[in-house]
Amino acid sequence: MEPRSSGLQRLVREVAKFGAVGGAGVLVNLGVFNLVRHVSTLPVVRASIIATVVAIAFNYVGFRYWTYRDRDKHGRTKELTLFLFFSAIGLVIENGVLYLATYGLGWDSPLQSNVFKFIGIAVATLFRFWSYRTWVFRALPAQEAESILVAEARKPSNEPEPKSQRVP
Predict the structure, then answer these.
(1) What is the DSSP string of 71-132?
(2) Higher pLDDT, residue 139 or 76
(3) pTM for this structure?
(4) Is the distance from CB of 34 to CB of 42 less than 8 angstroms?
(5) If I label 120, which of 8, 128, 142, 145 is the partner at 20 to 30 A Cα–Cα?
């Protein structure tokens, strides 16, 4: 029964970290969206696409170097390609909801745009969580992942890097 609870604990930690990075990404996304809408005359969906692209870049850094830092780091080109592919699908989902609300239903006030942008982000997040953990940030075997985390935990974070000595 112990391995099951350990697996559940890992999943809960993963969801919490994904949520923390994703939550910060939502703030970046909505902030850039409202900034672009305020300072430009771009149509609402174009402003949203710009904001989504900025948030995707922000999220990749957070996911790779914090949420999924214990995952397989081999094949970064493949990882980034898959991340961008699934992020593009998420972008279509997210902005499709906003497009439908804006142009299909005529709901274009700033409040309505933010509400539907947020709903689009929520729907796309479910897809992104599944696709990132399944295809992009592939899990290492449990023993290897644990050894990486233990090694990182043992590394003193406040010690300066050793300086190389020069021989004259």
Answers:
(1) S--S-HHHHHHHHHHHHHHHHHHHHHHHHIIIIIS---SHHHHHHHHHHHHHHHHHHHHHHI
(2) 76
(3) 0.73
(4) no
(5) 8
